[in-house]
Structure formats: C-alpha cells, structure tokens
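Dear colleagues,

I hope this message finds you well. In preparation for our joint manuscript, I am sending the General L-amino acid transport system ATP-binding protein (Sphaerotilus hippei) sequence together with its predicted structure, so that both groups work from identical material. I would be grateful if you could confirm receipt.
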Amino acid sequence: MTPADPAPLIRFERLNKWFGDSFHVLRDIDLTVARGERIVVCGPSGSGKSTLIRCINALEPFQEGRLLVDGIELGVEGREDDRAVTRVRQRVGMVFQQFNLFPHLTVLQNLTLAPMHVARLPRARAEAQALQQLERVHIAEQAHKFPLQLSGGQQQRVAIARALCLAPQILLFDEPTSALDPEMIHEVLDVMGELARQGITMVCVTHEMGFARSVADRVVFMDQGQIVEQGPPDRFFDQPRTRRAQAFLERIL
Ligand code: ADP
Ligand code: MG
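The corresponding structure tokens are as follows:
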C-alpha cells in the first residue's frame, strides 16, 4: 500500500454467511487486501474458500457484516444495490476451475463477447484488445480455434485472457489448475506469476504451494468457515502457528 492509496481494495468486516437457515459457511471474516497485493487462500475442502471469493464478485449473498470492493459497499442480503453490484463486477475478473468457455464460439469470439455486448465496444476495438490479451497469455496464434481444439492448459489461459479483456482491477482464481493434467499446470501458473509481477491484485484459491511461496504476498488459511491463520508464505509454510494449519500442511506437503 502506498501512502497515496491508503484504502484497501477489498475489505471484509465481520462478514457472516449461512446457506439456508442453519449452515454457517463463513464466520466472522475480517480480511483486507491492498491494491497490488497477491493473496493465496488455502484450506481443506469444504472450508469455505470458494464461497469467500465468490462474495467478492457478488456471486454469493451474505447476511451479516460488511464487504467493500474498491470502496463500493456490497450490502447484506435483501439490501443489495444493483448499481453497486454492477460497478463491483466491472472491477473484478474471475477464473474458475472449469474454464466455462463457450464451445460453439472461437477463442476470439469468447473474448469479444462481453466487451461488445456488455461494455459496448465496437468489434474492431474488442478484437484488437482480445488479441493483446491473448498475447499476454502467449496464445495469440490460437485465436481462431474453438476451445475444444485446445489443451486444458491453453483453454485456461484463454479464460484468463477473457477475464483480462474487461480490464479488471482484481483477478479472482478458484483452483485454476485443479482440472488440468499435471504437465499443463505450470504453463497456467507461469502466466499467473507474470500477471502478478505486472501488479494486478489477485486473490487465488490454490493448493499449488510452490506458486504460493514464489508469488503470494500473504497466505490466508481457512478451516470450517473461518480464517484461522494468515501471514507471509515463508512463515506460514515453515512455522504454521495453529494446529489446524500444521495438520493441513502435513497432509498436502
Ligand atoms: P471450498 O471451496 O473450501 O471447498 P466451498 O466454499 O465450496 O468450500 O463450500 C463450503 C461449504 O459450503 C461446503 O460444505 C459446501 O458443501 C457448502 N456449500 C457450497 N455451496 C453451497 C450451496 N449453494 N448451498 C449449500 N451448501 C453449499
Ligand atoms: Mg472450492
């Protein structure tokens, strides 16, 4: 955080969320993410990681607490403000485990769809910008192919380029390499590392601990809907402070 930009880009304040009446999935979440910061979120399956990051993009309502993205308040369930949701989504790009590309559209068409129809860019500009983003993920030569003609690693890089086409301030990744064959994982992680070095704010759910160590400024460890521990990656991996983090790391390392 620079002195000129003291406000965090993302701020959770004692956020609580339930699924239905009784399942308390996020518990008293306090978390701030500074502009340019790179966060890795890890923790056991079912601990609430996906739900947490989906809140940032207003894909999940929450019932208590506050959540501000770039100063824009996303209200609690029942008091959401559509304009705030739209403004937040303009700032946040998301990359999922399943790439969610349209199979009947070419790579280029997948990338120009939202810029043309949501952001109302003329086709020529949308295409020029799409090609730029494809270059950024080293895949411009595949622009006229269909997704299923590409490898999983290439498809995921297309999905990253698609998110970048809307010029987000924040990129959210939800286990972006979990659906990939092992030999393709590194090509996606390499691209994510390059984006991180270019200064984009990232919140990334991943179990790729090598990536966390080399790219993250901070690791956030969740268990049973709570943030149990957070800190710089070297400290988290080498000297986890809680038994729950120790047990998790013993299982995955
Ligand atoms: P993680 O990403 O850490 O594996 P999730 O955030 O996906 O965890 O899920 C946390 C818990 O919430 C899990 O027990 C999951 O089964 C449950 N859950 C997720 N989505 C829903 C939903 N739409 N309705 C009810 N329960 C859900
Ligand atoms: Mg998940």
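For the figure legend, we might mention the following. The longest helix spans residues 182-197. Strands lie at 10-19, 23-33, 38-42, 64-69, 72-74, 92-95, 170-174, 201-205, 218-223, 226-231.

With kind regards,
E.M.
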